Each structure stands twice: as C-alpha cells, then as structure tokens.
Amino acid sequence: MSAFDHAHPTRRPGLTIVDVIFTIAILAVLVVLIPPQLSSASSAALNNTLREDLKNLRRQIELYAAQHHNVGPGFRDGNTLSQPTESAFIEQMIGWTDGSGRASASNSSVFRYGPYLRAVPADAVNGRASIRMINLGAPLPDKARGEAGWIYHAGTLDIRPDALGADEQGVRYFDY
Fold it and tell me: What is the tens place of the pLDDT at every residue in 33-67?
C-alpha cells in the first residue's frame, strides 16, 4: 500500500449530512410553492364548472319554456296561477312532460318532451343541488344567501347560483 492510498481513503456509498440538508431544503421549498398553485387551479376549475352548469340550466329552462307555451318549469301541471315549487321544477326537468307541464317518469305519445336534465347539478362552489324558488310577484333577490344550490324565478326564467363569495376576478358567483 502506498502513502497515496492512506491519504485518500475510498468513499463508502451513502448520503452525507450536506446531501440530506440540501434534499430537505428543496422539499421545503416545493411544499411552500406547490399548494397555492394547486389551490388556484382547483378554484378556477370550480368556477368553470359553476359557469358551465349555470349555462346548461339556463338553456334547458329556455327549451322547456319554448316547448310549454312560454311557461317555465316549476308550475305544477303548468298552472301559472299557483306558486312554483322545487318538486315540480325537478319533476319537469328530469322527467317527461306533456304540453301542459304534467310530468311522467316514462316517455309516451302524450309525455313526449324532455327530459331536460339527468339531475339538477350541485352548485360547484357550495355543493348544494337544491333550488330556492322565488314566489310570483316577488323580485329576484339581489344577492345569494348560501342556503341552496340555485335561486330560480319561474316567472322570469332567471336562475342564479346561491353561492356566497366571488371568483378570483372579484365577480360574485351570484352575478354569473
């Protein structure tokens, strides 16, 4: 063995303390940077889902009204003298209807319209699929309460999210 061999001992495989500290520092930086990016991406996805569900609801409500003498869903048997109800809205949107708005679970020569939806979608922001019906003669509220998934006025065919808060641009979900 030469003197050179003792001066430079062979290195055993493994991590040094510097390697471990460097790895921990990189992981700490990633933990700080990645969650906010994932959070804003998931927030944008929720906002887009809310917009698309709302657009689809509006289209289907308009289609229903066009096929039912400009009467929106929610009136039991198409009776516009009665107050609209959530149960009538759901039955008419997910079932088959006749020209007067009576609903059926099956298609026939009489119940030939629809279905317009498979199910009422949940509001992507608050997770609720229920509908707060606005009575005839009452105005559409000017803000959400966060109690239902949707706010619907059968007289005007207006439907809005009942989600509190705003998107990243500051637009209230109610104003979508």
Answer: 666 555 555 788 899 999 999 999 999 999 999 99
Q: H or E element: which one contains 29?
A: helix 17-67
C-alpha separations of 110 from 23, 38, 94, 133, 140 in Å: 71, 50, 16, 28, 34
Residues, the chain, total?
176
CA distance 15 to 92: 68
Spatial distance between the Cα atoms of 124 and 77, rounded to a whole number of angstroms: 30
Structure tokens at 122: 């949940």
Of 135, 171, 147, 154, the closest CA to residue 74 belongs to 154
Please report the beta strands in the chain, taking only residues with DSSP state E, as ranges in sequence order.
96-97, 103-104, 131-134, 150-153, 158-161
